[in-house]
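Comment thread on ticket #2218

A.B. wrote:
> Attaching the input chain for the structure job we discussed in standup.
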Amino acid sequence: MHFIWSIILGAIAGTIAEKVLNFNFGWILTIILGIVGAVVGDWLLGLIGINLGGGMITSLVSAAIGSIIVLFGYKMISGNSN
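C.D. wrote:
> Ran it. Output below, let me know if you need it in another format.
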């Protein structure tokens, strides 16, 4: 069940990040980058000492923050002009 939740959370966070940054990578890449972003968001927030708690909404916020960072980095590295 955790795996399914991770995919759903990654898809939602990736979609939020795409809308915020006005990118369009396609749904598969969005889910993958969203899942990676969720991990990055948790790691970065923990690194700077911010604990949002363990709820679904706070997990989504953390994942969205990480996804925005990951999608922006992906676009810069890949040179993707979407």
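A.B. wrote:
> Thanks. Noting for the ticket: The mean pLDDT is 82.
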